[in-house]
Amino acid sequence: MIGSKSKRKQAKLSPSQANRRAWFFTWLDVLAIGAWGILMLRYWLTGKLNLLIHPDYFWLVISGGIGLLIIASSKAWQLLRQRRSTKGAVVQHVTLFPPGLSSSILLITAIIGLTFTPRVFASQTALDRGVTDSLGATRAQPQAFRSARNPEERSLLDWVRTLNVYPEPDAYAGQRARVQGFVIHPPELPPDYILISRFVITCCAADAYPVGLPVKLSASRQAYPPDTWLEVEGTMATDTLVGKRQLTIQATSLKPIAEPENPYEY
User: Which of 86, 106, 174, 200 has its CB 3.0 to 4.6 Å from that of 32, i.e. a possible disulfide?
Assistant: First the structure.
C-alpha cells in the first residue's frame, strides 16, 4: 500500500520533476553507502574497532568499508557521466517503502556513528549483565586449560579460565596474583570487598560479558571508586561470600593505572 501511494504520487509529477526526484534519491543512496564505508574505516584507523568487535573479524569490517567506498565512488562517477550526457534520465527502482526512506535511515545512523565515539562498558553495565568467575554454559569453554604462565603472570581471564576447568578454590590458596581490571562495588559484598573485572568479547560488543574476582581490602572500598582501573597484587585465598566459597585475592597492593588502549579480553 505504501508503494502504491508512492507510485500514484510519482505519476502526478512532470517528467522533469520525476527526473530530479530520482536524481535526489539516487544521490542519497550514494551518500548513505559512502558514509558507512567511511564510518567502518574510521573506527579501524582510530583504533576504536576493538571496542565493537573481536579482532578476528576486523578483516570483514575493513574489506566491507573499502568495498562500500568503491561502490559509492563508482556509482557517483556513473551519475556524473550521465549528467553530462544528453540522456540524463535516471531510472528509479521500485521499492516497497517510500523512496529514500531506507537510505535516509542508513545515512542518519552513519552520521550518528561519526559524531559519537564508542565508549567502554562501565561497572553498571557489568552489574546489569552479571559478573561471574565462570564462563557459563552458553559461553565458549575450554575442555582443559593449562596456562604456561606463572600464577603471578596470569591475566584475570587466565584465572577465570583456570577456575572454569579446575573449580576448587582451595587448590590455588597461597598462589601469587597480579591482575588488572576495573573496580565494581557489588551491593551484596561486604564494604571491604571489591570486584576486579574485565569484559570479554567473543564476537562483538553485543555479546560482551564481564568476568571478575573478589578482592579483599584492608580498609573500606570507598577509596577505590567504581570504574577505577587498578593493578591488584596479592595472594589467592578462599572466602565464603554470599553463601558461596569463592577464590579471592587478598590484596597487598592496589595501584591505579590508566585505562588500557584495549580494555577488553578475548
Answer: 106
Burial per residue of 178-199, b for 16 or more beta-carbon CB atoms within 10 angstroms, e otherwise: bbbbbbbbbeebeeebbbbbbb
Contact 69, 41 (CB under 8 A): yes
CB contact set of 229 (below 8 Å; sequence gap of 6+): 180, 181, 182, 183, 256, 257, 258, 259, 260
User: Are 224 and 255 within 8 A, CB to CB?
Assistant: no
Q: Which of 58, 39, 38, 36 is nearest to 204 (CA)?
A: 58
Give CA angle at 123 (119, 129), nearest 5°: 95
Q: Any bridge partners for residue 183, and if so which?
A: 196
The three cell numbers locating residue 47: 583504533
For a pLDDT cut of 70, what percent of the chain falls above it?
83
* pLDDT tens digits along 117-148: 888 888 888 888 887 766 655 555 554 555 56
Cα separations (Å) of 69 from 31, 102, 181? 10, 18, 38
Cell (9 digits) for 94 = 521500485
Q: For residue 145, is it left (φ>0), alpha (ψ between -120 and 50) or beta?
A: beta
Residues 6+ apart with CB under 8 A from 48: 42, 117, 118
| Mode of pairing for the β-strands spanning 176-184 and 209-216 | unpaired
